[in-house]
Structure formats: C-alpha cells, structure tokens
Amino acid sequence: MFQNVGEMVILFWSTLLALPATWRQRQKVSDQFFEIGNASLLMVCILSFFIGGVIALQTGPLLVERGLGSYVGGVVGFSICKELAPVMMSILIAGRIGSAMAAEIGSMRVYQEIDALRTMNISPIHYLVLPRLVAIALALPLLVTFAILVGWLGGALVCVANDHIAISFAAFFSALRDTVNVQDVANGVFKSFAFALIIATVSCHQGLITRGGPRGIGRSVTKAVVNSIVLIVFSDYLLTRILLK
Amino acid sequence: MTSTPSHPGGVSVRVRGLRKAFAGQEVLAGLDFDVQPGEIFVIMGPSGSGKTVLLKHLIGLEEPDAGEILIAGKPVRSPEVMSQYRMAMVFQSGALLNSLTVGENVGLYLAEHRLKSPEEIARIVTEKLEVVGLKGTEERMPSDLSGGMKKRVAIARALVIEPQLILYDEPTSELDPLSSVVIAEEIVNLKQRIQVTSLVVSHDRDLAFGVADRIAVINKGRILTIGTPDEVRRNPDPLVEQFLHASFKRL
B44: part of which helix (H) or strand (E)? Predict the structure, then answer.
C-alpha cells in the first residue's frame, strides 16, 4: 500500500514536471477532453437533476412544516454546490472515465505497447498520463459547474411542483442567492479540480502497473475505481476542513 | 533509445556477467557474449530460457541485477547511448498501438519527436511500408491485420528510426512458412542495405540457420555454445544437439 502511494506521488510529480509539454500534446488533450465530456454530460445532467430534486424533497417539507420555507433554496443550493455536486460527479467520473483510463493504459501495458513507446524514447508520462490528467483537470470542474446549475434547477422544480413544499421559483432562487455566494461555488469547483487530479493519477498509475493479462486489467480497473473513490472521500474531508478556515 | 541520425552502420554489443532473477528465480545466470557491428546474431533456446528477458536488457527496458551491457563501448542506459545511438525492437506480438492507424504507428517516432514535417512523415511512412511489402495499408487499423502483417508493420516502424541496432523477438512465431521467409529476407536485406547490427531471438531453426552470421544457444539463462551456424551444428553438447535436432519423428 505505501509503495503504491509512493509510486503515485512520484507519478503525479513527474506529470507536473511534464506540464510544459502540454502544448505539444494539445491534440491528445482535446481528444480526451471531448471524450470525457461526451461520455459524461448526459449522466451528469440526470444525476445532478435528481440529486437536487431529492435534497429538496427531503428537506423541503421539514423546513416548511417548521415555518422555515424561506431557507429551502439556501439548503439545497448550499449542499449541492459545496458537497454533493463535486463529490458525486467525481465519483461518477471515477467510475466512468477513471476505469476507462486504467483499462486502456493497462491493456497497453499488458500488450507491450508501453514497452514499444519506451524503445522509441517516447515517455509514457508525456504520451499517456499528461494528456489525461490535463483533460480531466479541465473537464471535471466544468462538469461540476454544470452539475451545480442543473442540481439547483432540479431542486427548484421539485419545490414548485411538490404540494408539501410549494415554494415559487423566484422564492427558491432568492433564498439561494441570500445563502450561497460565489466563494461557495468556487470552493466546490476547486474541490472537483483536486478530485480530478486524484482520479487521473490513481487510474493512470493502476494502468501502468498492470500485470498478467485480461484478469490483471480487470483487477486494475476495479482498484482504480475503488482507490479513487476512497481518496476522493478522504480528501473531501481534508479539503473541507482547510476551506472552512 | 533514439536520437538524430549520427552514426551510420551498426554498433557493437558487449555483454558481461549479465544476471537477472525474478522472485528469486534466476532467469539470466551470467551471460557473456559480443556482437560485432553489422552482424546478425541469433540467440536460440527453448521457451523460458531467458531470451526475451535478455532482449529487454539489451534495449534498456530491464535493469540487470549484475553485469553490464555496453553499446559501442558505453553502458546501455547511459545518456550517451540514449542520445547518440538509435536502437529499435520488433516485439513478438508486434506491439502496435491499437488506437492508431498503421501509418500513425509507423510514423509515431518521427511525429512524437517532431523530427520531420507531416508531409515528410507521410512520405517516409509510405516508403517504409513499401519496403516491407505493405504499401497502401496506411489507413488500416492494426486489428484489421494478420499476425504476419503486424510484424511487418512493426519492422517498418523500427526502420523509420534508422536503427544501428535492431532487436527481433521471435520474428517468425505464429507465421506461415511464406511469411517467415519474407521476414527472414527482410532481416538480411536490412543488414545489407544499412549495415545494421541485428540480434534475433528465436527458436525457429530454419530462420536461425538461414540468416545468422553467428548463433548462441542458451538454456536456463546460460550460454551453451556460440559460433557460426556450421560450428553450432557440429557442437557435440547433448543439450545443443537435442534442441537442434528435436523433431516429431524422434518422438
């Protein structure tokens, strides 16, 4: 375990050192960026819409019952932008994109494609890891921003449509504006940026250390997703503590 | 292990006391041999005798536990070798990048190192594919190719580097006899055309005796014999004899 952590830190550091080569790899970055967007946008919309709806459904009647209906927009908006959107979308991306990264790099490792790159003096970090890390670091914050907006919309629609809540659109967003400020949204987006680095590093690392044929690829994919989720949740706590100060 | 062309012709290879073990099991048990510039040196041996591991050491993909490998007198993993000499390896599976077309695979080295313009790369790719008899396959994907075609594409990819040392890992395995002859001819042609030093790992006796200037037979990580094809044929070592003459008839 500690060896894996050490290797991941080294991989991340090596990728950071390779950042000046990003422009040279821009085509691969843009390919990866659009793949991440294409593969995830619809799922992000559906997931965040219903998360917003569920939060409104759970908290709305309780708050309205106690005469705190004017806080529903704030509660929904705050919880979505600071916690639910960054964490849930990152977990979705870890499952959808992290697994694909681990599988692709893992199969390249198993079928000697990475060895072939090295014999041509092409660094796997420049060629494979850097474009993926940069693409996901750009794409995930954008997806999370989108998810926040869709989540708020989902919450608002449920508040309007549900008879037990019955808060107008304008009242919902007015409460949201009073409670949530730009800093809160920025915190959520910043968290998603950190989670993106975790997903890319963990998934690429698992791919690069894959051994033993198709079964090994399967193992790497599982580990990439599980380790990413564990690290996302763990670092979420740390980041929340830091950002609260 | 590549850079801009600077040393025409092949390079010498010197291996001394090369040892490697995986999980306590010794795979290379102290190998010593020399390969002369421009020579075709074939390493034969049964499966699991350490041939592929040896090749990976020679191109710097593996680090030895002990011993040294010198390319033109310099350690294989030294910056001088990395910057001054060009080495290529043709993998047993071809190891083509499945997400790239044949043309992109062949031109990958030039494109990634920005050594030529896209137009020049396209011209060179066509030229190298023609050399291996695969002109017109630039837009095809590796998954559309047969095993033999993949190996020939891998050779074309190696040729683009203009190597001074080329390593072949089982170049004729899984190939029909006709494709094997084409590959064998290509290995010899390359030597004649660019005086490249060639190291071929194989257990294909026809290939070995057909193309080799010298042959080494290894077993369990040790060299049993080294010599010209005639010398190896006459070697009285029972293990060598057994390996060279094993056939279904004897079974």
Answer: strand B40-44
Closest partner residue to A112 (CB to CB) among B93, B99, B157 is B93
DSSP characters for A70-131? GGHHHHHHHHIIIIIHHHHHHHHHIIIIIHHHHHHHHHHHHTTHHHHHHHTT--HIIIIIHH
ipTM: 0.84
Do A119 and B113 make contact, defined as CB atoms within 8 angstroms?
A: no
Q: How crowded is residue B93: how many other Cβ atoms within 10 Å of its Cβ?
A: 17
For the CA atoms of B223, B224, B228, B234, the dihedral, rounded to the nearest 10 degrees, stands at 180
Residue B1 DSSP SS3: coil
B108 part of contact set with chain A, CB < 8 Å: yes
What contacts A180, CB < 8 A, 6 or more positions away? A74, A77, A78, A81
User: Does the CB of B168 have a partner CB in chain A at under 8 Å?
Assistant: no
Looking at CA atoms only, how far is residue A147 from chain B in angstroms? 31
With 0-12 / 13-18 / 19 or more C-beta atoms within 10 angstroms meaning exposed / middle / buried, residue B223 is: middle
- Cα A7 from Cα B208, distance rounded (Å): 42
CATH superfamily ID and name for B7-86+163-172+180-251: P-loop containing nucleotide triphosphate hydrolases (3.40.50.300)
Which residues on adjacent β-strands are paired with residue A181?
Answer: none
pLDDT digits (tens, 9 = 90+) for A134-171: 999 999 999 999 999 999 999 999 999 988 888 899 99
What is the torsion angle, in degrees rounded to the nearest 10, for the CA atoms of residue B110, residue B115, residue B119 and residue B125? -30
B249 and A CB contact within 8 Å: no
Question: Between chains, do A115 and B98 touch, taking CB under 8 Å as contact?
Answer: no
Who among A115, A118, A120 is closest to B108 (CB)?
A: A120
* Chain-centre distance for alpha carbon A214: 27
Express each pLDDT in A9-36 by its tens digit. 999 999 999 999 999 899 999 999 999 9
Spatial separation of the C-alpha atoms in residues B152 and B194, rounded to whole Å: 18
What pairs with residue B33 in β-bridges? B15
| Range list for CATH 3.40.50.300 in chain B | 7-86+163-172+180-251
Shortest Cα distance from A229 to chain B (angstroms)?
28
Q: What angle do CA B194, B89, A213 make, to 5 degrees?
A: 160
Please indicate if any CB of chain A lies within 8 Å of the CB of B81.
Answer: no
Q: Is the CB of A115 less than 8 angstroms away from the CB of B56?
A: yes
Domain edges within chain A: 25-236
User: In b/e form, how buried is each residue of B4-38, taking b as 16+ CB within 10 angstroms?
Assistant: eeeeeebbbbbbeebebeeeeeebbbebebebebb
